[in-house]
Design a protein that fits this description.
Length: about 190
């Protein structure tokens, strides 16, 4: 990679980092290209040269957010030094904190099925990373005798599939509702409240 390509990559990274900070705190509607350009110390033209339009910036930020959240999820789920209960407690705290940190309109955007590219990206992460991690976690919980043995793994995975299939925009799901759903799922498979 030559010097020009390295500078271009640094600028793109700076743009996305600035956009991510604004989008998380101010939401999608509260974030402008002007704000991003000023924080990234680039011109608005540079942003359009690299990303074409604001929707592309938003998509790239969502992709970064999903990747970072998924890595944290996986670091909890696949940590062999922790028990199922410890992992479950950490996942609940992690999920609640992640939801608290996001602006409401970011959550709505993530789960709005009208955004085809976003829906495809979210479905890819859910299918290829989250569901695999959940399957691992459930198997581990069964081995430890914490997850109810009378509930089959396929039933639990089907139940998880129901969450994936929900059209969150139809139900106007907000942070509190999403936290409640996560809580109900985990404590339901645990067999206790």
């Amino acid at each position: 990679m030559d010097g020009f390509q390295r500078r271009a990559k640094r600028k793109q990274h700076s743009i996305l980092a600035a956009a991510e900070n604004f989008i998380i705190t101010h939401g999608l509607r509260g974030t402008t290209i002007q704000m991003i350009a000023k924080a990234a110390d680039v011109s608005q033209v540079s942003i359009y040269n690299y990303f074409e339009h604001k929707d592309r910036v938003i998509y790239e930020v969502m992709k970064r957010l999903l990747e970072n959240q998924t890595k944290t999820f996986e670091s909890i789920v696949y940590d062999a030094s922790k028990t199922f209960d410890k992992k479950l407690d950490e996942l609940l705290v992690f999920t609640n904190n992640a939801l608290d940190d996001l602006h409401e309109d970011v959550i709505a955007y993530l789960f709005n099925r009208n955004h085809k590219a976003m829906t495809e990206l979210l479905d890819w992460y859910t299918t290829n990373r989250i569901m695999m991690g959940m399957d691992h976690l459930i198997r581990e919980g069964k081995k430890e005798g914490v997850v109810l043995n009378k509930i089959s793994e396929s039933s639990i995975m089907a139940f998880l599939g129901l969450y994936k299939a929900l059209d969150f925009s139809t139900y106007h799901y907000h942070k509190t509702t999403l936290k409640d759903l996560v809580h109900m799922f985990f404590y339901g498979i645990r067999g206790q409240s």
